[in-house]
Amino acid sequence: MAARIEKGDAMSMVAKTLWLIETRLAAPPSLDELARVAGVSRFHLSRVFAATVGRPPMAYCRARRLTEAARALDLGLSVTEAGLAAGFESPEGFSRAFREEFGRAPSALRAGGGLAALALTTVHSLKDQTMTTLAPPSMETRGPFAVAGLRASYTEETAGEIPALWGAFAPHLAALDGAEPGVAYGVCIHDPETGAMDYMAAAWLAEGAETPNGLETLRVPGGRYAVFTHEGHISEIRRTTRAIFEDWLPRSGETPAGTPDFERYPPSFDPASGTGPVEIWIPLR
Fold first, then answer.
1. Which domain holds residue 39?
2. What pLDDT was estimated at residue 110?
3. Which residues of 2-16 are buried (b: 16+ CB within 10 A; e: fewer)?
4. Dihedral, CA atoms, 266, 267, 272, 274, nearest 10 degrees?
5. Where are the beta strands (DSSP E) in 155-237?
6. How far apart are CA 273 and CA 257, in angstroms?
7. How many domains does the chain have?
8. How far apart are CA 15 and CA 29, in angstroms?
């Protein structure tokens, strides 16, 4: 008899798989890699993922890569550039896959066909409302500091695309690693008027250092912070932030400062598997 799959277990393995796919759009993982990170067999992952998302993991991965390639073509990249950015080894292979997915050649979109006619695959949202049980935070005071990185805007519906930003930022880490070796920052800049959020995948920028080409700089204010630790897989970090803002903060009597909060990824965090502790710093008045 087949083992019964609990809903929470299925959501966890699918979330880990989605995270790895988005992080590796330019260098797509194999089914073996996806199964290893999810902690299950290839067969088990394929069955549960297809039941949850609507297609097997490798087909979903291919569709996401081709969707991002279509967006790149629409922004002006050449067919060769868009294909390479999406992890295809040759323009011919990319063009063939593009036709199979969208029913037209990438050159047709490049010539001005537009995205509206394409059936794009956006990041699958799991609608996970689970909250982590929090350990009490430590209260820390720290000075201001600067980070350099890549920044993009997200909504609740598109937040699943954040791992792709980390994938794009990863090649820049070496240029910033000297200031705080092995440490990265995910900075959240919230707009209270619209509810939108900018997220920045970044690393510490030493005082007086020049910002590397292609990156932007952000200065994070100093002040008093509540510091939590997320212990689970990185795909589940929103469970921890939800518990902080929807449970701990209303009960704590504290008032948020309204400045950026941030995630600090220490050297013990493994970006390849998405495991290891992550600090979440919440600014308070």
1. 7-113
2. 66
3. eeeeeeeebbbbbbb
4. -30
5. 184-190, 197-205, 216-220, 223-230
6. 33
7. 2
8. 15
